[in-house]
Structure formats: structure tokens, C-alpha cells
Design a protein that fits this description.
88 residues; four-stranded mixed sheet; 2 helices; elongated; alpha/beta
Amino acid sequence: MDKREFLKRSGALVAGGVLSPLLSGQENNAIRKNWAGNYQYSADRLDLPKSVEDVQQLVKHHSKLKALGSRHSFNSIADTIGDQVSLE
């Protein structure tokens, strides 16, 4: 396999692994870390809403919900024992 073919295949493999949770609407059972990789979130579930209406429904139906932004925090401020909702 030449270098170009290797890069195409490995790029497709990595992109598939990154995009598949985003397409499902939820990211469960996946290890979620901050951007630096030094903090691991302990929330059981991360919801990935696709519209404002989805966010409204999540807020309405969850008693404990915390927003997860760009994951640039070095501490547990965005972590929760409830569910997280992504702002991406």
C-alpha cells in the first residue's frame, strides 16, 4: 500500500469513528474527555440535539442536565451525575 492510499484509508477510518456518534443523536458509553485529555467526564449520557426544539425537549424532560460546551475546561465544572447536553 502506498503512502497516499494509507492516508486516504486511515482518514476515512478516523472520520467514521468521530462522526458516527454525532449522527446518532446520543453519545453513550463513550469515554468523553476535555480537549487536553487530562479530565474524563463521568456523566452517563451526552445528548447531541440537532435543533432548538430538541434542546427544549431535553430541558423539559430532564431533572438534571448540564451543558457541555467546547470542552476547554481543566476541571469538573461541566461534569454532572445527570445528563450532559452538547452545545456543538
